[in-house]
Amino acid sequence: MRILGVDCGMEHTGYGLIDSDGRSHRMIAAGAIHTSPRDSLHTRLLAIACGLREIIAAHTPDSAAVEEVFYAQNVKTALKLSHARGVVLMTIAEAGLALGEYSPLEIKTSVVGYGRAEKQQVKMMVHSLLSLEVAIESEDACDAVAVAICHATHVHSRVRMGVAR
């Protein structure tokens, strides 16, 4: 199964594509869609949607996964993140992809085995699980790959237990 993981953000929206059977994973692509804070909100949202459409067209994933909304202390930041996340969800739905949404705790538990893991621990495990020789440079891309790995693990578990979703 080819999975697109997305780490939503207004300035940097990370993406990661993996092929997975639920137990072993292979990296296909990872990177980030960048927008400029100098551009208007609607222009930045359009750039995220267009970038994600290009990635989906180029790699034809079977499903997608994103991190659920978390609570930010800064309301303005949370609102901008929600705009970006809405565009990502719309673009995924537009492509007809099945969607998985996971909390930061679920993602860290799936990848590291500990829900309160630090970013560096997640990065180290992503590289280990994918047997990567070269580091994923973008933190946003690495987080997106972690989301994809979490989705692969959850789908595999549901299939093994005979639970459809």
What brief labels describe this structure?
165 residues; alpha/beta; Nucleotidyltransferase, domain 5; five-stranded mixed β-sheet; 21% strand; globular
Any overview of this molecule?
It is globular and about 45 Å long. It has five helices and five strands, in the order E-E-E-H-E-H-E-H-H-H. It has a five-stranded mixed β-sheet. Helix content is 49%, strand content 21%. The chain has helices spanning 41-59, 75-94, 104-111, 119-129, 139-161, and strands spanning 2-7, 12-20, 25-34, 63-67, 98-102. The two termini are 15 Å apart. It has a single domain, classed as Ribonuclease H-like superfamily/Ribonuclease H (Nucleotidyltransferase, domain 5).
Describe the secondary structure blueprint for this structure.
Elements: E1 2-7, E2 12-20, E3 25-34, H1 41-59, E4 63-67, H2 75-94, E5 98-102, H3 104-111, H4 119-129, H5 139-161
Parallel strand pairs: 1-4, 4-5
Antiparallel strand pairs: 1-2, 2-3
